[in-house]
Amino acid sequence: MPSDAELPEMLPGAAFIKDPVLIRTTGLTVQFGRRMVLQSVDLSVSAGEVVTLVGPNGAGKSTLLRSVLGLQRPSGGTVWRKPGLRVGYMPQRLAVDATLPLTVRRLLGLWGPVTDAAVDETLGEVGAASLADSPVQALSGGELQRVMLARALLRRPDLLVLDEPAQAVDVAGQATLYALIDAIRRRHGCGVLMVSHDLSYAINGTDRLVCLNGHVCCAGRPEDVRRHPDFQALFGIDPLAMPPWLSAAGPHSHGAATPGCQHTHGSGTKDTHTPKDKPTHG
Amino acid sequence: MDDFLLRALAGGVGVALAAGPLGCFVVWRRMAYFGDTLSHAALLGIALGFVAGINLMLAVALVGLVLAGVLVLMQRQRKLATDTLLGLLSHTTLSLGLIAVALLQTVRVDLMSYLFGDILAVSAGDLVWIWGGGAVVLTLLAWLWRPLLAMTVNEDLARVEGVPVLATQLGFMMLMAATIALAMKVVGVLLITALLIIPAACARRFARTPEIMAVLAAVVGALSVCGGLGASFRADLPAGPAVVVAAAALFLLSQLFPRGGIPR
């Protein structure tokens, strides 16, 4: 595991930033009762850097995010924030009751005074300009996430904290959303700390991947981390080698009878497919 | 019109004007059951108020506050689901109140008037409490409006943005306890939640912003009081239940209009 001190150096493009570190946890430990959720986690995020937390369910990703946000008191260790740090937080899911009459414009103004012009400009930046006067409840998952991203941007954040930003977004929208996050980071130079379940899109724009499972299993550039044995033990052998739509529908189990699978297999050894028994999916 | 009827009208409208906007938050935050629990505890407040010899509204508000505090503490334990906790507290405090009232030797308490309201017996002194208290509730609500709204949309987000969530929450509970104390005389402890949520639910149909919904809820509440009292006067109905039925009738009527809001 790389120590905090050497992390900024290994980041691409971090050299031009004067005082890069926005937030740093040192030996962060969180316990719920007797259950150790996070153990001695060292993490830092610098300006202009995208750090993505991945890990299985219950790995403490959300707890780590909540600790960084100051929503969760650590049982041990420290969370240091750059003085005056402005954080733009995007929660996992915004559930506004249907009885609350709230337009997007009004929603964006709830956390401080904003001008109509600023709202329109920021909504335009996230590709949601047409939604300004829609009721919040009428938005699709992807639209709502864009709006919430706009909300965070309106606060002119130094650090964006995103909790599974693409969770309620359809597959086509996910790539766009991550591209948008990447573009925002480049334009505004803010740091990004996000939790993601998705291992393909999220990683494209990620500078540093942190694999969490109660502790930091491995961390570093995505192309290094994915070869790490701990990462492969958690996620299978290099899940990034194959896009998710292929890994979901592609190599199906050959042991059990697979409905809809019409091709037959010869001896069971790989690479014996001849053009004759080429798989044909119905 | 008779004096007592005018006083009833003034008292009822005063309560409705405060309960409408506050009730919007009860609806938005899905706290109807919480309101029920607080109002059921009011009877215990009345009994304790008699024993202590203090103003009954004050006693009810204090018991409501203590109960809200107990609830927040118990919620933190996370051993029971919130609705289970509320059910436990709601019915325990109601039963305790009934027992306490029965044990009161010195005062004869007209139980029915506390359970279902006694709006026709509103005194000039009550009016001062209702309008004074109502004005304070509305002023504080206006002051808490933005943080409360931000919290209602997302509590974590509000906290990250520096909204004093705990203080706002406590403030809101205080307003609930106070409003319940004010409304007790009008509709009684068993029906108070209706005055909070039915006008708000009715107003939703016509509102495009939270503020408009709050104002409309106050208006609908006031109309319900007028309608209920009118029906009570003409047909000799019990006044408190008549007000609630009038509110429900307005709600049904509102459903006939095309939706101004959002398809669910």
How would you characterize this protein structure?
The complex is a heterodimer of chains A (282) and B (264). Chain A has helices spanning 61-69, 104-108, 116-125, 141-154, 171-188, 201-204, 222-225, 229-235, 244-249, and strands at residues 21-32, 35-46, 50-54, 76-81, 87-90, 159-163, 191-195, 208-212, 216-220. By secondary structure, chain A is an alpha/beta fold. In chain A, a hairpin with a 3-residue loop joins strand 8 (208-212) and strand 9. Chain B has 264 residues and is mainly alpha-helical. Classes of the chains: A alpha/beta (282), B mainly alpha (264). At the A-B interface, loops of A face helix 7, helix 8, helix 10 and helix 11 of B.
- Per DSSP, the total helix count of chain A is 9
Q: Proportion of β residues of chain A?
A: 15-25%
Structural class of chain A: alpha/beta
Q: How widely separated are the two ends of chain A? A: 47 Å
Structural class per helix/strand content of chain B?
mainly alpha
Query: Looking at the structure, what is the overall shape of chain B?
Result: globular
Number of strands of chain A: 9
Helix-strand sequence of chain A:
EEEHEEHHHEHEHEEHHH
Rg of chain A (C-alpha, Å)? 21 Å
